[in-house]
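By way of example, we now present a protein record of this kind:
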Amino acid sequence: MRKEPPQGEELAVVAPHCYCGRLARLQTSWTESNPLRRFFVCPKSERGKNGCGFFVWVDIEMPRRERALMAWLLRTKREVEDQIVVKAETNLVLGTGRLVQIEQLHTLFQTEKLERLVETEMLERLVQTKMVELVGEMVEELG
């Protein structure tokens, strides 16, 4: 039975020790000059700091044509991601605006409902008053 060879990041790569004796950290380059090229660095290194200065490439350098294509793909990916973020922010703003409109409509509805309730109560009182007057008139006529 044959096993499939590992693909992508699954390739077995043994981390070397850096100059300060720690296991080196595997990172991926996202630069246009070395897109998606993996390398090891000192785990103490951060932006602007080199730790002990250990650095070694894991992957071989891509041919110029593939490197240019990969750089273009990464730029296009970033542009699409930026467009998605802008679209999401726009939808959020529109959604918030719609939510405000819904809240305003709800408030208006509640206000109109309350006004109708007040009008209904006033009408009921008016009817009750008229009924009392009519009953009073009937009592007088019969009386």
